[in-house]
Amino acid sequence: MSSKNQPISGNDLARFSGPGTFMRLPQATSLDGLDVAFLGIPTDIGTSWRSGTRFGPKQIRAESAMIRPFNMLTGAAPFESLNIADIGDLAINTFSLPQTLKIIEESYDAILANDVVPMAMGGDHSMTLPILRAMAKKHGPMAVIHVDAHPEVSDEMFGERETHGTVFRRAYEEGLLIPDKTYQIAVRGSGYAVTDFAEARSWGFQHFQANALWNRDLGPLGSEIRRDVARKPVYLSFDIAALDPAFAPGTGTPEIGGLTSAQAIELIHALRGIYIKGCDLVEVSPPYDTAGTTAMTAANLMFEMLCVLPHVEYHHHPTPPK
User: Is residue 100 part of a domain?
Assistant: First the structure.
């Protein structure tokens, strides 16, 4: 029996009961001995359209109760090789976005003082900027895999420079990422000007527009990115709006023509072998999906991301996909 933390089995305690942690893992009050820390960032004060992502972490955790610890498709057994826990929610300031961003950055400074991979449940996408600020202090500029309907490179929104739509422009300006190792996948929809996508490409960002991905297996794209980043530290930010609203309607800024849930899984599987130092899944807004489908999808994608972290043990498929 593993000495590492384990999710509570559905055969030991009914899945509709037990702790409200991710996958019903232990809730840790200390980072000592942890390899991976799940945490919630329940904020929506950086969003510009539909609010509700403050409820995202709680709903993602609730839907994660159905996930079992062994990945039948890939053979990944993350709980056999990594010590994993849920460290709860950050105590954000629900009345102040600047203060909330400061709290996130300072909290991540403390988390990253330990040798732990943080996996954050959002929350709107504004939270990723202070995370990248803290990450860059520890790892230097990072390769970034950003899966989203929107490139989030606006200069400002209503005069504000730090919102969910300005994250990656600020990260570029502040030198937090490696421009030609920044991959924006599934971008689509309408824009304010023809330069909306072109400017980021001029910085070196690599765009993979959704229409070029329709009806395609995304395994080869993931493998191409894996080869391109080589041994660089990577941050993975997955906005649930990358998926078509048919698969994830509960989000703040939905756009039709997105990825399928199967394509999202294909993409994540193909990233196995890269040096992911942290990741997040953002923009789940439960009030816009009373069936819980969006949060259920988000919880499963977080499990898939967990399964491709470095040092995860596999029981079969011993080499990454080609």
Answer: yes
**What pLDDT is attached to residue 279?**
98
Under-70 pLDDT residues of the chain: 1-2, 317-322
pTM over 0.90, yes/no: yes
Q: Is residue 15 part of a domain?
A: no
Structure confidence by residue, pLDDT tens digits, 121-152: 999 999 999 999 999 999 999 999 999 999 99
Render pLDDT for 217-246 as a digit per residue (tens, 0 to 9). Answer: 999 999 999 999 999 999 999 999 999 999
Spatial CA neighbour of 130 closest among 85, 93, 159: 93
Q: Which single residue is written with the structure tokens 């993409």?
A: 267
Q: Is residue 295 part of a domain?
A: yes
User: Is 319 part of a structural domain of the chain?
Assistant: no
Q: Round to whole Å and give the CA distance between 156 and 240.
A: 22
* Residues 206/224, Cβ–Cβ less than 8 Å: no
- Check residue 161 and give its pLDDT: 84
CATH number at residue 250: 3.40.800.10
Burial group, residue 158, by CB count within 10 angstroms (0-12, 13-18, 19+): exposed
Structurally, the chain folds into a number of domains equal to 1
| Whole-number Å distance between alpha carbons of 220 and 199 | 26
21 vs 64: CA distance, rounded Å:
8
Q: Which domain holds residue 62?
A: 22-314
Question: In whole angstroms, what is the distance from residue 242 CA to residue 245 CA?
Answer: 9
